[in-house]
Structures are given as structure tokens and as C-alpha cells.
Specification:
The structure is a single chain. This protein is α/β, with parallel strands linked by helices and 201 residues long. It has one domain: Ribonuclease Z/Hydroxyacylglutathione hydrolase-like (Metallo-beta-lactamase, Chain A, 4-Layer Sandwich), CATH 3.60.15. 23% of the residues lie in helices and 31% in strands. The protein contains 7 helices and 14 strands. Strands 1-2-3-4-5-6 form a 6-stranded mixed β-sheet, covered by helices on one side. A 6-stranded mixed β-sheet has the order 7-8-9-10-13-14. Strands 11-12 form a two-stranded antiparallel sheet. Strand 8 and strand 9 form a beta hairpin. It starts with a strand and ends with a helix.
């Protein structure tokens, strides 16, 4: 499996393109980015997997689906967050934004496959009600649940610090310490580093 990171969208979210043989998945889709489309030449984008529904992670899903035929998957609890996207972008002075639409829903414990790779879905509510992380072997795509030296904010609609703390401490920090964490913003880290140095949780 090959991982490529693309910093995208209005507030520099990390979008991750995972490829295996001639299939691919995109984790979060902040915009229809030409560099991602170039990487997909000769490959089938099977899924767009959303870590959560905040506008800066989902604004590109309709356009990317139209160009690639990929299915957009999210936790159902974050549909209200996706539906807020157009209104939020108006506060940035951007008009006529389509509401991002999902094709199907993911739940804790689901397994997604592409090529010869399996992705485990892990529910980590707290930053939003429907936050998901995606585990691929020794790699965790954590969205806005866990960052290097930090965690996602909890003061937006659907945020809950106690739930976030529980998700991080009782789910993520119980994983192997060598797992590399690929967050929704900022640089990579590891589970072991965050257990030792993350002072927020």
C-alpha cells in the first residue's frame, strides 16, 4: 500500500490517498484537487472515507464522486455536520456551495477492503458525534480526534471533551505504541509518543 498526503481545502486539512494495485481510497476530501486526480490515473477510486463531517474535510466529496464514481462513506451521526457546510462557507464569503452528500454509512468495527488491503473502522466520538478513525495495519488515520501533542477541539456543535478523552484513552492509547498516526491536520506522530507527551488528555 502506498500513502500520499495532500494538504487541501480552506484550512489546510490532510487528505490521504491510499493505493493498492489498481484500487484506491481517499481519506477525507476537502476539495477536488488536481494532484489527487493525476495520482488516480489508471486507478479506480473505490471509496472516499470521511473521518467526520466538518466542512474542511468534506467540501470536495460531490465533485470527486462525479469525477471518479467513488462511494462516499461517513458515520450517520455526522450528517448534520455535513449539512452545515454550505452555511459555514457563507461566513467565509463563499456562496453557492452544494451540501456534501454521503452514499452510505459506517459503524464501529466495519471493515473496508480495496486491493489487498483491509481498513478497520473505529468510532471515536468527541470532536463530533460521528468521528471515525481508520486503522490499516500499523497506520492510524485519526482525523481530528488525535493530533501531534494535541486533540480535536470540542467547543463546536456535537463536541464533547469527556467523550473525546474516553475515545483517546480507552481506544487509541490501548493500541500498539509503534502505530504511526496520520492526523487530519499537521504532522504525523505515534501512539507511543502521544501516550507519553500529549498533555491535553
Amino acid at each position: 500500500m502506498i500513502i500520499k498526503k495532500f494538504i487541501s481545502g480552506p484550512i489546510d486539512a490532510n487528505n490521504y490517498l491510499l493505493t493498492d494495485s489498481d484500487e484506491a481510497v481517499l481519506i477525507d476530501c476537502s476539495e477536488v484537487k488536481s494532484e489527487i486526480l493525476q495520482e488516480l490515473e489508471g486507478k479506480k477510486l473505490k471509496y472516499i472515507l470521511l473521518t467526520h463531517g466538518h466542512f474542511d474535510h468534506v467540501l470536495g466529496v460531490n465533485g470527486m464522486r462525479e469525477k471518479t464514481g467513488a462511494k462516499v462513506l461517513v458515520n450517520k451521526n455526522d450528517i448534520p455536520r455535513m449539512e452545515e457546510s454550505a452555511n459555514i462557507m457563507q461566513t467565509f464569503g463563499v456562496q453557492d456551495v452544494e451540501t456534501p452528500i454521503a452514499d452510505d454509512y459506517l459503524n464501529d468495527g466495519d471493515v473496508i477492503t480495496f486491493g489487498n488491503t483491509k481498513i478497520k473502522v473505529i468510532a471515536t466520538p468527541g470532536h463530533t458525534e460521528g468521528c471515525l478513525c481508520y486503522l490499516v495495519d500499523d497506520k492510524l488515520f485519526s482525523g481530528d480526534t488525535l493530533f501531534k501533542d494535541s486533540v480535536g477541539r470540542c467547543d463546536l456543535p456535537g463536541g464533547n471533551f469527556q467523550k473525546l478523552s474516553d475515545s483517546v484513552k480507552n481506544k487509541l492509547f490501548n493500541m500498539d505504541e509503534n502505530i504511526v498516526v496520520y492526523p487530519g491536520h499537521g504532522p504525523e506522530t505515534t501512539i507511543g509518543y502521544e501516550k507519553k507527551y500529549n498533555e491535553i488528555i
